[in-house]
């Protein structure tokens, strides 16, 4: 590691120190930068690293439960023991990245966020700052393969990057209270840790991400605790400034911090707030949770597993149904949020067939009904008068009907000129009475998951 690190880190830090102060962004500038993300509504999350080949199994036994990407800390072993077991099982096959991009594109996703480094500290690319990376393990820059494939499909590129690092010798796990660390690794750590040196490494590696792979659209940090966050933990303010200077259009989440003004009310991943100062990031990240009433004017994105874990597990068969996933997307869009739906590829980069099947079904639904999701705003009504959800685009309402009302009609508290089935364009009977409109539905809904009615 030393042979790669010293000169490269010094050069990277010199460049970062030269970053000029950036003028405060106006609301108009921020809205322009956020526009594509707010319109996208649907993205694919990918968790892939050394843990993927282990598949939730350690010494022949299931580690149980979710969170298999945390396997090292779940079983408590040091990096040497963990790597010895995981490295032989992490063998990316040729073409895996193009397969990922096709799954995302066919599913109707507008962007993909993938793990460049998870908490285990393994960096998928070719880093001059560490040997614990894809290039040294596989002879390939896996980040480049993935970003090239996504760019070829016209997808926006997001980098998940763990700010926690169980591998780096200067990551101060004792200071990082409230954050996980493998028990055996902690017990074997005899040398003093220097978090400031780790911060320099973190910033240097982020500079590599922003310098080596073309346009980057999203950075998805993960994560801080209420006891360890922000400048003291990660040099966060400078890190954000450096990112903005390098790639001004990047959109970042709020996980460099864990405090109310940054959109968090506590440690639970569902404990998000409806207020966030933009200096802490661009959007909040409820995890496996959909806020009941949205989050007002705060930009938000629900990230969610398809089963019970983020990384690949050969044991987890608790897959969410296609109906559940499509209705989640509708529910989130109707509340003004984005849906980042996860897949966990195997050690060779194969997305499980159960995930592919569900993504294909979502793509099929969106090909017919995407107009009612992409570029829409939240439901303008306080209550829905039917079993379903409402999205809005300009002067058009989209009624996502989950179940036909018993009387076969939907009453809206607005005047409407016409209503048609979005899929096929069949006109529906509309009656206006004062400030209300009654729409008569067909005897049978064409789509049992969600039939969409376009109302103008």
TrEMBL record:
Q: What is its EC number?
A: 3.2.1.51
Q: Which residues does the annotation list for site: May be important for catalysis?
A: 303
Which terms are listed as keywords in the entry? Answer: Glycosidase, Hydrolase, Signal
Signal sequence residues: 1-23
Designated name of the protein: alpha-L-fucosidase
What species does this protein belong to? Answer: Luteolibacter ambystomatis
**What does the entry list under GO cellular component?**
lysosome
Alphabetically, the GO molecular function entries are: alpha-L-fucosidase activity
Hydrolase keyword on record: yes
Among Pfam families, the record links this protein to: Alpha_L_fucos
Q: Which family does it belong to?
A: Belongs to the glycosyl hydrolase 29 family.
Which purpose does this protein serve, as stated in its record? Alpha-L-fucosidase is responsible for hydrolyzing the alpha-1,6-linked fucose joined to the reducing-end N-acetylglucosamine of the carbohydrate moieties of glycoproteins.
Q: Which PANTHER family match?
A: ALPHA-L-FUCOSIDASE, ALPHA-L-FUCOSIDASE-RELATED
